[in-house]
Write a structure and sequence with these properties.
Layout: E1 2-3, E2 6-7, H1 31-80, E3 83-92, E4 97-106, E5 117-126, H2 128-132, E6 135-152, H3 161-169, H4 172-175, E7 184-201, E8 206-221, E9 234-239, E10 242-252, E11 259-267
Parallel strand pairs: 6-7
Antiparallel strand pairs: 1-2, 3-4, 4-5, 5-6, 7-8, 8-9, 9-10, 10-11
Length: about 280
C-alpha cells in the first residue's frame, strides 16, 4: 500500500514485541510489624531460660544427691577397705550447701554390735569456684553426733585396717603430708559437737571414753586461703570422767603480723597413769 507521502509497508500480521514484566522489590516490614515479632522471641527465650533453670534445680536437688549416695560409698570402700552407708543426702543447688544424714562406717563382715564410726549429721558449705579450679573449699564444716568406737585386740592390732595398709607402704611423715595430695583443699570453720569416742583395749582389759566432745578448728588446708570469718579455736570433753577444756582467741594485729592467738587450758582430776602404756 502506498500513498502520497511515500511508500510505507504495513504488515498487520506482525506482532509487537512483548514487554518484560518487572517484579516489585520486596517490601520491608514496617516498625509496627517489627514490634509484633519481638514479643514472640522474648517469650521463647524466657521459656527456654525457665526450662534450663528448672532442669538445673531438679538435677542439683535430686539427681546429684542420688548419684552421690550411690557412688560415694563405693569409692570410699575402694580407698579405705571399709563399708560406708549413708541414709540421705541433701544438696541446695542455689548456695551449694550439702548435708549428709546418718553416716555409718564399719569393717567388712564384722560381728561388732556398734559401728566403727557413726555421724548423725554432716553439713558443708562449699565454694563452687574452687571445684572449677580442681580444688575443694568449704567455708564451714559442721559435724554433729560423731561416735567413734576403737578397739585394740590382744595381738596389738586395731580395728582400722586402713591405718596398717598405709603404714606398711609409707613412713609416718609421708602419711601426714597433705601437701602431696593431687588436689587443693581448704576446710574452714570446722565444728564438731555432741560427739564421743570409746576405746576398748582388750590387751589391758580397760575401756576409755571421751564424752561430750566439742572441737572447733578455724582452718585446715594445704594451700593459702582467706575466709571471710573464722571461729575461735576450742576443745572441750570429759575424758574418763575428767573435764578438760582448751580455748583460744585469735585477734587481728597488723597485716604484717597476721593474727595473735592466746590459749587457755583447764584440766580437772585427770589421771595420766593409765595412758603411759600407749606411749612408745
Amino acid at each position: 500500500m502506498s500513498d502520497r507521502f511515500g511508500s510505507i509497508a504495513i504488515n498487520s500480521d506482525k506482532k509487537a514485541p512483548a514487554l518484560q514484566k518487572t517484579e516489585p522489590p520486596p517490601r520491608r516490614p514496617g516498625p509496627s510489624e517489627k514490634k509484633q515479632q519481638k514479643p514472640g522471641m522474648v517469650l521463647l527465650f524466657s521459656l527456654v531460660a525457665c526450662l534450663l533453670l528448672v532442669f538445673y534445680f531438679l538435677a542439683g536437688a535430686y539427681l546429684a544427691p542420688s548419684l552421690l549416695k550411690k557412688y560415694l560409698p563405693r569409692y570410699l570402700h575402694e580407698t579405705t577397705a571399709l563399708d560406708f552407708t549413708i541414709e540421705s543426702i541433701q544438696l541446695n543447688p542455689l548456695n551449694f550447701q550439702l548435708t549428709f544424714k546418718n553416716i555409718q562406717t564399719n569393717l567388712p563382715q564384722t560381728s561388732a554390735s556398734a559401728p566403727l564410726l557413726q555421724v548423725d549429721s554432716l553439713f558443708m558449705d562449699m565454694d563452687l569456684t574452687s571445684l572449677l579450679r580442681n580444688g575443694f573449699v568449704c567455708d564451714s564444716l559442721s559435724i554433729q553426733g560423731l561416735q567413734l568406737n576403737l578397739t585394740r585386740f590382744k595381738d596389738n592390732s586395731y580395728n582400722i585396717p586402713a591405718l596398717f595398709h598405709f603404714s606398711n607402704e609409707r613412713t609416718q611423715e609421708e602419711i601426714m603430708d597433705f601437701a602431696a595430695l593431687p588436689f587443693l583443699f581448704s576446710l574452714n570453720n570446722i565444728d564438731i559437737s555432741d560427739s564421743r569416742i570409746r576405746f576398748n583395749d582388750l590387751l589391758t582389759g580397760k575401756t576409755h571414753s571421751v564424752e561430750k566432745l566439742h572441737l572447733a578448728i578455724p582452718s585446715f588446708s594445704n594451700f593459702s586461703f582467706q575466709s571471710t570469718n573464722y571461729i575461735q579455736p576450742h576443745f572441750s570433753a570429759i575424758i574418763n570422767g575428767s573435764p578438760i577444756q582448751l580455748s583460744g582467741e585469735a585477734v587481728q594485729a597488723t597485716k604484717e603480723q597476721g593474727f595473735v592467738t592466746t590459749l587457755s587450758c583447764t584440766i580437772q582430776a585427770l589421771d595420766l597413769v593409765p595412758y603411759f602404756s600407749y606411749f612408745p
